[in-house]
């Protein structure tokens, strides 16, 4: 009833607007034709762990930039997304700022629903939905 090149529409829901939700939105849009993706985030901002957690170890270091206690454990140069002046390890605020830049760059806010919590999902075998 249809040509092989005709992609059927597909709806995808992603829970959480942290790294995984943001990267999924970017990748799915590029790789999956005819997708309708919605990212549901229960908080009032994007960033997941980097948005929610405000504990002291996510604050920028006032001491040496080599002070691992105030930064994440991934060297900032290894991912190549953080400013050269950030020190060896990216700080929590730098990581959150990076995620916000990705959402802006790829215009993802139209797919992200803030302050929405998914409480239940079910599959209807008969309709395939």
Automatic annotation (TrEMBL):
Tagged with keyword Transmembrane: yes
SUPFAM superfamilies cross-referenced by the UniProt entry: FAD/NAD(P)-binding domain
TM segment ranges: 12-29
Entry superkingdom: Eukaryota
Family classification: Belongs to the FAD-binding monooxygenase family.
Alphabetical list of PANTHER family matching this protein: FLAVIN-BINDING MONOOXYGENASE-RELATED, L-ORNITHINE N(5)-MONOOXYGENASE-RELATED
Protein name: Flavin-containing monooxygenase
């Amino acid at each position: 009833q249809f040509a092989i090149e005709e992609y059927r529409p597909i709806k995808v829901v992603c829970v959480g607007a942290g790294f995984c939700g943001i990267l999924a939105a970017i990748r799915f849009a590029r790789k999956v034709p005819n997708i309708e993706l919605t990212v549901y985030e229960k908080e009032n901002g994007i960033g997941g762990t980097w948005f929610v957690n405000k504990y002291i170890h996510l604050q920028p270091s006032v001491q040496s930039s080599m002070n691992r206690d105030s930064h994440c454990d991934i060297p900032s140069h290894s991912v190549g997304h953080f400013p050269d002046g950030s020190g060896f390890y990216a700080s929590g605020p730098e990581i959150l700022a990076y995620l916000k830049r990705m959402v802006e760059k790829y215009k993802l806010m139209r797919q992200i629903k803030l302050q929405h919590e998914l409480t239940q999902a079910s599959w209807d075998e008969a309709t395939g939905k």
